[in-house]
Amino acid sequence: MDLSYTAEETAFRGEVRAFLKARLPYEIAEKVRRHVELSKADMERWHAILNENGWLAASWPKAYGGAEWTAVQVHIFDEEAAMAYAPRIVPFGIHMLGPVLIKFGTEQQKAEILPRILSGADWWCQGYSEPGAGSDLASLKTRAVREGDHYIVNGQKTWTTLGQHANRIFCLVRTSTDGKPQQGISFLLVDLDTPGIEMRPIRLIEGGHEVNEVFFTDVQVPCSNLVGEENQGWTIAKYLLTHERTNIAGVGHSNQALEQLKALAKTQRRNGQRLIDNPLFAARLAQIEIDLEAMKITNLRMLADAQKNGAPGPESSILKIKGTVIRQAINDLARRALGPAAAPFPSEDLDPNLTIAPRDHTNTAADYFNNRKISIYGGSNEIQKNILSKTVLEL
Amino acid sequence: MQFEATEDRRMLADTLNRFLSTEYGMDVRNAAAYSAPYHAPEKWTQLCELGTLLALTSEEQGGFGGTGFDVTAVFEPLGRALCPEPALPALMAIRLLAAAGHDLEPAMSGTTTYAVAIGEMEVPYGLDGLSTTARPGGDGFRLTGRKSVVYGGHIADRVLVAAHREGSADDKPGVFAVNAKDITVSGYGLIDGGGAAELFLEDAPAELLLADGTAGLQDALDAGALALCAEAIGAMDVLFDMTLDYLKTRKQFGTPIGAFQALQHRMVDLKTEIEQARSITILAASRMGAPDQSRAVSMAKNLIGRTAQLVAEESIQLHGGIAMTWEYPGSHYAKRLVMIDHQFGDADYHLERVMAAHQVA
User: Fold this and answer.
1) Which end of chain A, N or C, is more open, meaning fewer C-beta atoms within 10 Å of its C-beta?
2) Is A8 a catalytic residue?
């Protein structure tokens, strides 16, 4: 048992830290620190800075412009990036479509699409869930019917994150109704400016706009936009799911959020004492800290396994479940820490010069409500428990 | 022993429920709750005409209620409708004005809108350590300080303020009345709907209502917390039913998701906790006016704080993405249920009060 990083890994951490210090724009880090919504331009700017250094596509092979980092390097980068308040990389092109194309795409698709992901020429979004197909994704109904050298697509996708910024969407579509539902699904790339597509915003619980509904009416998509074989979409989706799972525990972000919470508890005063000196509050804080310390090691154990076996195993569902629960517990405690000052709704009606909650915490309650999503999306925690009970426990 | 509400209170609750379900649907509610003035003045007038404020006032003060069970009979329907109307500040003002032997007519008729300003940035809950001060001046007193997140403060004509008299021998807060026009009011909306304000008092002329306001203020806080408990019960009942209905109708994997035992047990847990919350609220309502009023209210507010958050979080999770949307009514119920814990003491604050009562006993 050796919990220490190798000399190379430690040197790499130093390199990452120096890079972040030199290149992460202050204005962007401030927004992340204060949980202020990032603009499209902010996200593109950060991507461009990483890409310039060859670090945008951390796990892609070098041949495609990636950094070809090991799982441990990716983890180190994520940890440092979170502590520096760097934005998360928008995952749809880099973490999702990229690995899929590298594994299943044609040479032409790779040559055309991968460089445009890196350069920021394309912003991809995801068309998976449908109103009737959430946890039961395989029951999706959006049809793609082949006519000559085109598919005609009809149906509706939902929960399309940041679709308002995107010019292209990768979709799971039904190309066959024979056999099991999983067997009739294909993976299709669609330009969002194709006639017949309409995107409508969905306003979330806290008032923000980050997800959308996408409607397809007789949309013509060239057959050359199919990835892999027809009806192979489910295999691709499952492959993608394993890639979505790197950094699934969000340890770096929880760590950073916990540090912010500790700082808040030292400045908040409640009836004559600092909040951090209140035994009930301090106990809640300590419990979360214990859970997070354990999670960090659980995360590293699974990382070591993934490094050895090539891909994360089904045990990584543990990371999703516990990682989201811990993150939500931190959000919960931060909201409580503010007391009544958590309640004002950040809107144009609220005088920006009026300090009620401390300046960095005006979005804390909104953040708490918004982060209820993390135990729902990407396979809800209930679905993760099904995976664990079936595949790991064999129940 | 019987746990049925009296005929009068049942009729009152029915009247309010009927009015709110026909006149205060979710569209009306959201339009009112999230844009200035963060309530619907004409609906509030109608609610007052239906006897809302009279029910919160005792017979000797000219009303027809005022007991703990009258408070819960009014606030449960308001909670069911997520009603952002300023009944809570009205309730607390009526209790303070009555304690001061003050004329209640303007408050009860709704001709004067009151707010009650106790909490400050560093003293968000309770009465210990308030820093707003009163000094003799003019015909009465002059108040200086800041009151934070004053519910209904954005629409008040008159504000009842807890403040310490400069130079008084004790450190007991008094209760003073100020006119809103004599202070700086910075109003805003709240994340769960409704409005509040920051109040800045700079040598503001004030009338002394209670020299020692400790008991009166604590009673107003207790009544306010009890009202919030009842509001939470109403909101939890609606959100629970909504979730149950969803589990029976939403199909995934070819079956209603309510067929999954893992989800069934979670619903049973929620039902159990809601019934416990209902019981402690009944207990607290029954203790209003008794020597252990504050302890019973703290017990109720603690359990409500825990249960309301559980119901809010579980109902979102059991719904999945749909309850994360603004369009779905359940999301607004969830927000209100969580944020009730931020008013007049959260679960930890009230837990400490119950713990302190052990030490005295």
Assistant:
1) N
2) no
